[in-house]
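Q: I have 448 residues here and want to know how they pack in 3D. Can you give me a structure?
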Amino acid sequence: MAIVLYYVLLGLFMRASLERYFEFERLGTNWRTEALAGATTFLTMAYIVLVNPAILAQTGMPLAAVTAATCLAAAFGSILMGVVARYPLALAPGMGLNAYFTYTVCLKMHIPWQTALGAVFVSGVLFLLLTTLGIRQLILRSIPHELHAAVASGIGLFIAFIGLNEAGLVVADPATLVRLGNLHDPQTGLAVLGLLLMISLEIWHVRGSILIGVLTVTALAWALGLAHWHPTSASLSGLTATTMQLDLRGALHVGLFEIIFVFFFVDLFDNLGTLVAVTKRAGLIQNNHEIPRLNRILFADALATIVGSLTGTSTVTSYVESTAGVAAGGRSGVTAVVTGMLFLVALLAAPLLGGVPQAATAPALILVGSMMLTTITEIPWTDPLVSVPAFLTLVMIPLTYSIANGLGFGILAWAILHLVAGRVRRGDWLLYLLAALFLVRFVYLSGA
């Protein structure tokens, strides 16, 4: 009896200690909310377990090995972010960068995937070095807070657009670029039903509304025969085909400098943009526009990229789908830890992930995107020195399908307009340096 009592008291003490460490009381959260939020984030980004291996396998990388590497990299990065930085920010191999890795570096430039992994590793080391020196932190602080608000709203439009497309409500058109989709499509109807359910639950202040909506639509899809299962195998034993297979000597060749630069540059600003969006949505940015524990966030991101390259996947970065977990109530690092643990489970249950249809996750993206537009009120729209750069940031993120591009247009416009108006301040030197770097990227690397 005494032993049982001892372990009960120990468990209570550890629980109380963890709640203090993750600041549950200050953030107004609890274990149930954080667990639901972590599961919600996982469900909205679980597609990466299927999509990333499918893209990278085209380089000749073994599919099973990349699937396992994707799960491990996402789990490591998310858990590290949750424990060390204590933010509800999940990480995984980034979409866009995996396409650049495959289609541009390996297929177009005929560079072996081992060498490309080496380039990812080098970019991760650069991230870590710049984080240690405080340069990445300086870069984030140099960006005006009005552009932070524009980035958050722009990403809201971005993920809402992705959700509308996945729901079949907005489709491509060769004449007008986009048009209204087929509303008679059962998948589209199911997605609309899911969106209405999630919004209704939000109106009724039901916790976990997004997760409930995703699971309900998934059940309906299976009941109506609208869900399709595409099994994908994954195992730790398969990792040997990609683990530690990177070619560092080849990556450090002078001819690969541009590749390393693109991996570094795009991930830097995609990560910063996502970081701003998620922390603003969660209300975690301080009144002076500072992000607490910023160095820990960037450290976790850099280390996750290094580990990802060592296991056999492209650049690991923060995921904007983390806003789904934040919208579900996630505020602490426990949300990210839960997401990371579910990625470990996904390593064993990868075949089951194909059972969650797009009709179930698309409404979540649409709803979260609409919620992120609240930051738009922080922009002084009557002042063109601020409103024009903010507007360009806002619209170019979804229209170019890139957070980095949107932020680049905003910074460039901010620098040019303030130069024209004679409003240049000596303390803004880093902002103008960033503008120059973005100009170089748009001129010489626009096709990357």
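Q: Anything worth noting?
A: The chain has one domain: 25-374. Strands lie at 91-93, 170-173, 177-180, 316-318.
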